[in-house]
UniProtKB/TrEMBL annotation:
Listed name of the protein: N-acetyltransferase domain-containing protein
Pfam families named in the record: Acetyltransf_7
InterPro entries: Acyl_CoA_acyltransferase, GNAT_dom
Signal sequence residues: none
Domain N-acetyltransferase: 6-186
Molecular function via GO: acyltransferase activity, transferring groups other than amino-acyl groups
Domain of life of the source: Bacteria
Organism this protein belongs to: Corynebacterium deserti GIMN1.010
């Protein structure tokens, strides 16, 4: 595959909720998860679309969805922020700066490109569209730790300016280590 020119565009909440099963399939394939999680994830993603600040971006090739990215405003009522606060306490925080940061951020919840379409700039374009004109001061996301940060996700986030917020963090209910990364908004140009 040479240059690919997908259409990158925002999805309205109805478009997102109608198409959630197809979008979750991209996530399951990209992350190599078991298909058995499909229905629960569809439910969670649809619930996420009700959060304030919800923004979703899809990548389309010939009307086929090949990528999805979405997020929403962070909130002290969200499980995820409770987890971040626990992580900060574990490392001796939170500092004043960290307290400020987690009062005004956009959570990038998911970014996935269908295998076969990865490595052609689609993830980068979706991230730019997702975070464009965002009113939050920062964007925060998590990604599974990998040796030497040697995967497309880490490379993409680093090149967009994301730096360490928490490392080797274990979310409740997940055995894996995660990196939680943060960047000021707007994203730097590249
Ligand atoms: C992570 C992901 C969303 C990135 O999207 P993508 O379209 O493949 O990435 P892009 O082509 O936009 O590349 C962005 C950067 O990632 C890096 N990258 C891309 N493919 C790579 C590869 N195969 N190996 C290492 N780095 C790679 C490069 O640094 C690239 O920067 P460049 O444009 O300057 O070359 C996508 O690869 C994916 O869905 N992966 C599996 C699921 C996943 O890990 N999701 C994120 C979980 S937090």
């Amino acid at each position: 595959m040479g240059d690919v020119s997908p259409t990158i565009r925002r999805l309205s909440i109805p478009e997102f909720t109608i198409n959630t099963p197809v979008l979750v399939d991209i996530y399951i394939e990209a992350m190599e998860y078991d298909k058995a999680i499909r229905d629960t994830r569809v439910e969670v993603w649809r619930r996420n679309s009700q959060n304030p600040g919800f923004t979703a971006v899809a990548a389309l090739m010939d009307d086929q969805v090949v990528g999805i990215a979405y997020g929403f405003n962070g909130s002290p009522n969200h499980w995820w922020q409770h987890q971040l606060r626990r992580g900060l306490r574990q490392q001796g925080g939170p500092t004043e700066e960290e307290i400020q940061l987690i009062q005004n951020y956009f959570e990038v919840a998911e970014v996935h490109v269908q295998p076969g379409f990865q490595g052609h700039g689609i993830g980068r374009k979706m991230m730019h569209e997702l975070l464009k004109d965002n009113a939050s001061g920062h964007a925060i996301l998590s990604t599974p730790e990998v040796d030497g940060e040697a995967n497309p996700a880490f490379s993409l986030y680093r090149s967009l300016g994301f730096t360490d917020f928490l490392r080797h963090f274990k979310f409740d209910g997940d055995q894996r280590d995660f990196a939680v990364l943060i960047t000021p908004l707007p994203l730097g140009e590249r």
